[in-house]
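Q: Given only this backbone (362 positions), what sequence would you predict?
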């Protein structure tokens, strides 16, 4: 646990020193920009090092499923692999096969490839569209996204493509968005839910969008049986996620709802006029809806994870657009303290099985 806390503390120090507390944005002078670039470069390298040289015990799915799958894929032909693991996406199978052949079966080679692509996508997403890049990095880490990325390898690859597609989508590059979205589907089928967001968010009239989001939420919540039949037919590998769970998910739901209330009650209306921020708000609404449903249907907890990446860009923009003049320092420190406490809670719960962190250089 100590290494995670140390990383977050380091990010916090740079966040405080490189933020302009008059407006909530990062400092724009040349010296500060150079330091920010250096910090992000070092963070990329260190997080890549952590993800690459971790033991297979760091990340429950890695030890229980992905490591054995990697070895099986490396030692068998594609036909045998598909027959033995028919529900695994072909993109993930081919990636494992290629890396196994090139590396001679070294699991750290696979971890390096996945981590490098994920971090490249994440840092590009932050670099291009965040108003406070160090703050975005802090949010990514403190919400437990880094830990989750070490557990769900297929989801991590899928969200990597989605982060790249969002950057294209914000710039109305719809062909590139579609290509990257299709690529994501070949690594995890649950990413299909993003098609709903992409489709609805293209509608210009916000009242119609709101109605469609409400309809989607109601259909998913009350059409449980029909949806389960659909999953059983087309995605049977996810049947285990449909065991009813009434105990978990409330803590994350509370965090998402609390942030949404802050956004609505204390933010300037101009934030909703900004195209990127507007789409991030829609993603936040999706995250809240899916997290609420996931309390009953755990399948959607994985989906919530995808939409939570909106917060990486949205929180810094919200802080910078607080209605009350001079409130930015207080709000930033409140966020840092609250999210730091939340992260400690996440580590203690260890839902992604990444504690304790252990290096393995073999």
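A: Predicted residues:
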């Amino acid at each position: 646990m100590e290494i995670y806390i140390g990383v977050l503390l380091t990010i916090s120090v740079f966040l405080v020193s490189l933020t302009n507390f008059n407006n909530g944005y990062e400092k724009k002078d040349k010296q500060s920009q150079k330091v920010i670039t250096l910090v992000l470069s070092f963070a990329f390298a260190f997080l890549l090092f952590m993800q690459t040289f971790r033991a297979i015990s760091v990340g429950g799915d890695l030890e229980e499923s992905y490591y054995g799958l990697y070895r099986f894929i490396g030692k068998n032909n594609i036909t045998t692999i598909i027959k033995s693991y028919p529900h695994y996406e072909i993109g993930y199978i081919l990636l494992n096969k290629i890396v196994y052949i090139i590396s001679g079966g070294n699991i750290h080679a696979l971890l390096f490839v996945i981590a490098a692509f994920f971090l490249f996508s994440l840092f590009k997403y932050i670099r291009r569209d965040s108003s406070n890049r160090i703050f975005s990095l802090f949010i990514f880490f403190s919400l437990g996204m880094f830990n989750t990325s070490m557990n769900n390898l297929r989801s991590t690859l899928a969200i990597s493509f989605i982060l790249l597609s969002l950057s294209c989508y914000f710039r109305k590059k719809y062909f590139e968005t579609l290509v990257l979205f299709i690529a994501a589907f070949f690594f995890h089928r649950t990413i299909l839910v993003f098609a709903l967001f992409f489709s609805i968010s293209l509608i210009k009239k916000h009242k119609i969008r709101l109605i469609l989001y409400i309809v989607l939420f109601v259909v998913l919540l009350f059409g449980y049986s029909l949806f389960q039949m659909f999953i059983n037919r087309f995605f049977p590998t996810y049947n285990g996620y449909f065991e009813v769970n009434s105990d978990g998910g409330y803590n994350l739901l509370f965090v998402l709802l609390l942030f949404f209330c802050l956004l609505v009650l204390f933010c300037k209306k101009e934030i909703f006029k900004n195209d990127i921020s507007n789409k991030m708000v829609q993603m936040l609404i999706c995250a809240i809806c899916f997290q609420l449903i996931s309390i009953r249907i755990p399948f959607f907890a994985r989906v919530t994870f995808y939409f939570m990446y909106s917060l990486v860009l949205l929180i810094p923009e919200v802080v910078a657009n607080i209605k009350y003049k001079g409130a930015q320092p207080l709000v930033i420190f409140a966020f840092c303290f609250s999210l730091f406490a939340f992260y400690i809670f996440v580590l203690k719960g260890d839902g992604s099985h990444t504690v304790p962190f252990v290096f393995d250089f073999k």
